[in-house]
Design brief:
24% of the residues lie in helices and 28% in strands. With 156 residues, it is of the alpha+beta class. The longest helix has 14 residues, at 32-45.
């Protein structure tokens, strides 16, 4: 029997011990980084319902019809591959309850490198951590290799 697959979030853990319980709704991610990792895995595994569920009510896409968003996410997922993730920095929640995670997402669309670095904001909504917003920078816009960035040095 082949070993269980590794989690797409690059944690080094098997999927069933890492992001699967979040995707199945068995438990909520304990912090912003775990939510971010689980969302990357959801993109990789086309768990579009989870992506919708983990958008914070303040996220602009929450004002759109859920069916439209799910359809767009499914269509996009068909042409994208997600070979890895690097978390470079994170912050605890600030006075407004916003936690940040800086990550390098490896993404390919039909063989073209669409990888990027994003500084994401997350807030707990009373049930769990949710994605509020993010600032994304394509690799070509970065002043140095993405792994060298921190929240403090991420381009504004």
């Amino acid at each position: 029997m082949p070993p269980a697959p590794l989690c797409p979030c690059s944690s080094g853990l098997r999927y069933r011990q890492c992001c699967a319980p979040y995707h199945r709704g068995e438990t909520e991610p304990p912090d912003a980084e775990a939510l971010m990792r689980s969302r990357y895995s959801a993109f990789a595994l086309r768990e579009v319902g989870y992506l919708w569920k983990t958008l914070h009510p303040e996220h602009p896409d929450r004002s759109r019809p859920e069916a439209d968003m799910l359809r767009e996410l499914r269509t996009s997922a068909q042409s994208h591959q997600y070979p890895g993730l690097v978390v470079m920095d994170r912050s605890p929640p600030d006075a407004q309850g916003v936690a940040q995670v800086l990550f390098f997402a490896k993404v390919f669309e039909r063989g073209k490198d669409r990888s990027f670095v994003e500084r994401s904001d997350f807030r707990h909504d009373g049930t769990g951590w949710r994605y509020v917003s993010g600032v994304l920078r394509p690799l070509r816009e970065l002043p140095h290799p993405p792994e060298q960035l921190t929240l403090a040095t991420f381009p504004r």
